[in-house]
Amino acid sequence: MKRKVVKAMAITLSILVVAVGVYFVIKKYTGSKGTASNNSFLIQTVRKSDITVSVKATGSAYASVIKEVAPNNSGELKNLNVKIGDTVKKGDVLFKVESEQLRQQLNNAKSNLETQKLKLESLKKQLENLNSSENANNNTNNNAQRTSAEDLQNQIDMQELQVEDAQNNLNYAQQQYNNMTVKSPINGVITAINNNNGDDVQSGKPVLTIVDTSSLKIKASVDELDISKVKAGQKVKVTFNAIENKTYDGVVESISDMGTTQNNVTTYDTVITLNDISGVKVGMTANIEIETASKQQVLVVPVEALIERNGKSYVMVEETNNNSSSAGVNDETNTQRNGVQQGSASSQSQLRGNVGDSGNSSFQRGTQGSNNRWLTNVNGRLVEVKTGIENENYVEITEGLTEGQRILVTIPQTSGSSNNTNNTQRRNNMGGFGGGIGMPGFRQ
C-alpha cells in the first residue's frame, strides 16, 4: 500500500514539472502581452504637410532694465511716499535726503555772490567818480588820474571774474541742494524699498528699486546638445504656466558663450524678446519652443514608419493581393488629412502580424465597433527613401515616395512600466516584420 502511495506521488510530481516546463517554454516563444515583440501596425497615407523642427527649453521672465535708486548725498530720509507695487513715471519725485551741510553750503554760496557783486559795484562807482573828477579839473594832473583810472579798470576786470566764480559756486551748491530730492530715472514699478522716513542714509546706497516692466524678456536654459541649432533671429513660441490658453511670439535675441553646468548637465542662457508682454510678470516660468527649421507642404511620414539599415532609410509600402476586396480599405478621417497622425491600437485601424506555418506573414486591417471591415493578405515592400528635416513626430521624405501612397507604420507595444519607445530603436527594430530587410511576406 505504501509503495502505491509513493508511486502516485511521484507521477503527480512529474506531471507538475512537465506542466511548469511547458508553460515557460510557451511564454518564452510566444511572448506576453505588452512586450516589444507584440507589435501593432497602422496603414497611413503619405500626404503633404507643414513640418517644423524645434528646440524646447524652459526659462523665466525677467526685466532687462532694473534701476536701484540711491541718493546723491548722505543725510536724513524724508518724503518717502511710495510703496512696493506703485507705478511711477520718469521724473516723479520719490524721496528727499535732507543735509544740513548742503543747506549751509548753499547759503554761503549765495552770501559770497552778493559780496562779490557789491565789491564790483564799488569799483565801478570809484571809476565813475574818477572820470567825473577828471572832467571837472580841466585836465589838471591828467597823467596821474589816467593811471588811477587804468588801475581801477583792472580791478574791475578781476572782480568780474570773482563774481563769475561766485556764481558758478552758487550754481553747484544749488544743484547739490536740488539733488537732495530724488526723482525716478525710468518708467516702472517699485519692487523693493530698503529704508523708512527718518533713517540716516548714505550717498550711493540704494533706497529703492524700480523695474521697467516694458523691458520684460525671457531667459531660457538650452541644453548643450541643442545649442548649436539655435541662432539669433529665430522665431520662438512661448507659453507660461501661469497664463492659460495663450501663446506668445518672440525671437532669439542673444546666446551666451559661457555654459552653466549643474548635475553634469550643461546649458546655455538664451535671451528671447517677446512681441507682446501683456499679462507677463517678472519670474513667471516659461516653456520655450525655438523654431530651428521649417518647410511648408512637403511629403511627411511618421518617424515610426522609417526603417534604417546599413546607413540607408526605408519605408514599408502597402501591397494588397489581387483577390483582396478593395472595399475593405476605409479612407482615413479628415483629421488625418492635415498630416500623418500616430494612432493607437485601441483607437485606429491596425495591422497585426501573424506568422503562419508556411513562414509567410499575413496581416489584417480593421476598425473597432459594430462596423468591422477587414482586409486580409495585406503585404508590404520596402522602399528606399531620402529624408529631409525631422522632428519628434514626423520626417520629411524628399525621394522615394509619392503623395497618396499607403504605408505600414509599426507601433511597438511596450511593457507596463513605460509607454515611451525610442524612435531610433523603432527604426533599427523591424518588430512584426520578421527582422531584417528580406523578411517573408514583404518584397524589396
From TrEMBL:
This is HlyD family secretion protein. InterPro entries: Beta-barrel_YknX, BSH_CzcB-like, RND_pump_MFP, UPF0194_transport. Keywords: Coiled coil, Membrane, Transmembrane, Transmembrane helix. Its main location: other. Residues 431-444 have a biased composition (Gly residues). Residues 321-340, 357-374 have a biased composition (Polar residues). It is found in: Cell envelope. Belongs to the membrane fusion protein (MFP) (TC 8.A.1) family. GO terms for cellular component: cell envelope; membrane. The keyword Cell cycle does not apply. Residues 67-212 form the CzcB-like barrel-sandwich hybrid domain. The lineage of its organism: Bacteria, Bacillati, Bacillota, Clostridia, Eubacteriales.
